[in-house]
Design goal:
Structural class: alpha+beta
Shape: globular
Largest sheet: 10 strands, mixed
Length: 752
């Protein structure tokens, strides 16, 4: 940068350690309510709780896959235990995530993390989190204190474990981490062009990677139960990795599920009455304003209405790790009443951005109510607080209800203005006019079709009958790119679900692991017809195409580790769509309405397979693999190698339209180290749940395993199941938890 003290203009989204494109997924969910009382005058810190007493009150039961089931007399005690278990299993990632929340990721990871730190400081995350934490109700502060006390207690009890950067964890760090994740998941929704990859002609991965969520009603099941499928597609490295646990307190908390490392409670999963999961949506939760600074005598003055207002400017320093040591980069920030200045256009025009209720919304005010909800009414009541900025919600319960919600904190706006371009900051009419109420958001409750699904498509194609009607909602509520976006994953989901009848729990698992490709299922019949014409018009090309197309036509369009057609099909799709094919559903321009070019692409695909692997009939699992590495924050830097152990996996990139979804690294051209593809995003926490009148059944699966220690038997044990497309048992009833525990201990005790 030419002037380090200038207001920084960021030309593209560059934070690799909070990879916005790879977070279709879940936001950091703090959860606080009904906690042990603390005096209103107290300012809890990590030292204000008695960790030894909390540790004695908590019992951890690890199941056969090392998933912790944590029991304690209070919600606060199990939160303490949950933090301790996270630190046991992946302290490195906890510190990595919290360093990002403090705007200090560059101190660990260098220049690659700079833009994330810059954005963090632009929104004053550390300063305001510390300030706002002091204003929280005492019960909320007490829970945050209990959580970080659990992490610090682990560090204290394990002196051989050393933190890389932080000296200790403080309660307000939770709020900072939550806000940083919020920035990384929804900042692009402010429509500041410098942060919107689409403005530069690129498509963000989040638009297509997304997640899958299904629910079916009793009318479609054999025994009259409801069933739910949770399948967020999170990155396998970085802050968005899932951690699975079961929390059981004497204050009525009994929830089993998963969340990010650093979050104090599971956020998707189920209790004894209901379950739910999230997928990413695109409500218009933020805006950008073009501000005019044209008063030479007062350079901080900007036009507003008939006069001027005065911006605030401040300096900060971001430390960056380099090969020669730590360097300091001074930066100058500015903010108007609209929000911080994210972009400088010229000497007088600058872009301010803001996110709806960025400081005001605090998920704890509704989260624990959700986790303890006994029925759909209580769940909706908790959601109505609108403390969660985004996410589609898919829900099912034992009373036979299924539900889809398009959740979001959406400002009310003057509809005469273009909502997805920077607004005129001079004009008071561009100000927000409050926020839309929860009952004004799209939803589907108990449709006559008997199913709902959310695969990051428009809410208007959630099911077959009973979808929300677009005309009932203001055009600005949902981002334009989402309003008519019906992804192939969603089309595949509706196809699978509408054909379900008398489903058993075992059949439900197979549906959720299905590898049928919507693109192959719908496009191959067309190519069969076009090939007949090709034989007449281009006989030489037809002879080249014939063995490859015949191979594909002799196929049920299902993937699998032994499928050679799947390998050829996906390679062909890549040739048709081009670079980034795993995140695109449109053909390259030169391929559109050009069957000859499309058939040539099939020949090219087969030739590439032949050249790289020695055969064009390669089994999918021989190419597409699972391999785990520990303590890596950046997906681009994971040292995958064909020389290291790995297992086959059947996941297919979601843009082809598939339930069992995974995304892979490409092979490195000319490399002897890596010809194979390794999964880095996709099926991350998978859960299938059956809610009967009397009992609940659950099976789950992580991408790798519960432990980050390569020496642990639980480092890669769940990957073996994922390779076989099998779920693991997830004990929920406490007698089963205790009976099948592989080890039981209190935090701080040495465990073999």
């Amino acid at each position: 940068m030419k002037n380090n003290r200038a207001i920084h203009s960021v030309s593209r989204w560059g934070c690799k350690h909070f990879p916005t494109p790879l977070v279709p997924v879940l936001i950091f969910l703090l959860t606080v309510e009904l906690l042990a009382p603390v005096s209103a005058g107290d300012k809890p810190s990590a030292a204000s709780v008695d960790p030894a007493a909390l540790a004695r009150s908590v019992t951890v039961h690890r199941d056969q896959y090392d998933v912790p089931h944590i029991d304690g007399p209070t919600d606060e005690s199990v939160i303490f235990g949950f933090a301790y278990c996270q630190a046991e299993d992946y302290l490195w990632q906890l510190e990595e995530s919290y360093a990002g929340g403090l705007g200090r990721a560059s101190e660990l990871n260098g220049e690659a993390a700079y833009h994330g730190d810059w954005l963090n400081r632009l929104f004053e995350v550390p300063r305001l989190a510390r300030e706002d934490f002091g204003k929280l109700p005492p019960k909320d502060r007490a829970l945050c204190a209990a959580f970080v006390a659990g992490i610090n207690y682990y560090v204290e009890k394990n002196p051989g474990v050393k933190l890389r950067l932080l000296e200790r964890f403080e309660p307000w760090h939770l709020m900072a981490f939550g806000r940083q994740v919020l920035l990384q998941t929804i900042y692009q929704g402010t429509h500041s062009s410098k942060f919107d990859l689409a403005q530069n002609g690129e498509s963000t991965d989040a638009e297509f990677i997304g997640s899958n969520a299904y629910a079916i009603a009793p009318s479609r099941t054999k025994n009259g139960s409801t069933m739910l499928y949770s399948n967020p597609h999170q990155p396998y490295y970085g802050f968005g990795q899932f951690y699975e646990a079961h929390l059981h307190s004497g204050e009525g908390l009994n929830f089993s599920g998963a969340t990010f490392f650093g979050s104090p409670m599971p956020t998707i999963g189920h209790n004894e009455n209901a379950g739910w999961t999230f997928t990413v949506n695109k409500p218009n939760t933020g805006d950008a304003w073009q501000e005019t600074f044209d008063d030479p005598g007062h350079p901080l003055n900007y036009k507003y209405g008939d006069g001027y207002r005065t911006a605030t400017e401040w300096q900060d320093i971001i430390k960056i790790k380099t090969a020669k040591g730590m360097t300091e980069r001074p930066v100058t920030f500015r903010k108007t009443h609209h929000g911080p200045i994210a972009e400088k256009i010229n000497d007088t025009k600058q872009i301010a951005v803001n996110i709806a209720r960025f400081r005001e919304a605090f998920y704890p005010r509704q989260s624990l109510q959700m986790l303890k909800a006994k029925n759909v009414s209580e769940f909706l009541g908790a959601m109505s607080h609108l403390e969660q900025h985004i996410y589609n919600v898919v829900y099912a319960d034992r009373d036979g209800n299924i539900l889809y919600l398009y959740n979001g904190i959406v400002p009310k706006r003057d509809p005469t203005f273009e909502a997805e371009q920077p607004l005129d900051g001079d004009n008071p009419r561009t100000e927000w006019q409050g926020y839309h109420a929860f009952n004004e958001l799209p939803r589907v409750l108990n449709p006559i079709s008997g199913f709902v699904q959310s695969c990051n498509q428009t809410p208007f194609t959630t099911t077959d009958d009973g979808n929300p009607f677009p005309g009932n909602y203001p055009a600005y509520m949902i981002q334009r790119k989402e309003q008519n976006d019906d992804k192939r994953r969603a089309k595949m989901a509706r196809y699978l679900l509408r054909n379900l009848h008398d489903v058993t729990f075992e059949q439900w698992q197979k549906v959720c692991l299905d590898t049928t490709m919507y693109w192959a299922m719908t496009e191959l019949p067309k190519y069969k017809m076009q090939f007949e014409e090709l034989k007449q018009s281009e006989p030489d090309l037809a002879r080249q195409v014939e063995p490859y197309l015949t191979h594909l036509l002799d196929w049920d369009c299902r993937g699998g580790v032994n499928s050679t057609q799947a390998s050829l099909c996906v390679q062909w799709y890549e040739e048709l769509v081009g670079p980034g094919f795993a995140t695109k559903e449109s053909l390259k321009p030169e391929m559109i309405n050009n069957p000859k070019a499309q058939f040539k692409a099939l020949v090219t695909a087969a030739e590439k397979l032949q050249k790289i692997y020695g055969s064009w009939k390669m089994a999918w699992g021989d190419i597409y693999r699972l391999q785990r590495h520990s303590n890596v924050a950046d997906l681009a830097r994971v040292p995958f190698s064909d020389k290291l152990p790995s297992v086959p996996t059947a996941g297919i990139p979601g843009t082809l339209g598939v339930a069992f979804t995974q995304y892979y690294t490409p092979p490195i051209p000319g490399s002897i180290e890596r010809h194979k593809h390794y999964a880095v995003v996709g099926n991350s926490f998978m859960g299938v749940f059956e809610f009967g009148k009397k009992t609940i059944r659950a099976k789950t699966l992580l991408d790798y395993g519960a432990s980050s220690d390569p020496a642990s038997s639980h480092f890669f044990d769940q990957a073996q199941l994922l390779s076989q497309r099998k779920f693991k048992e997830s004990p929920f009833y406490w007698k089963d938890v205790v009976a099948h525990a592989s080890k039981t201990y209190h935090p701080g005790e040495k465990v073999n």
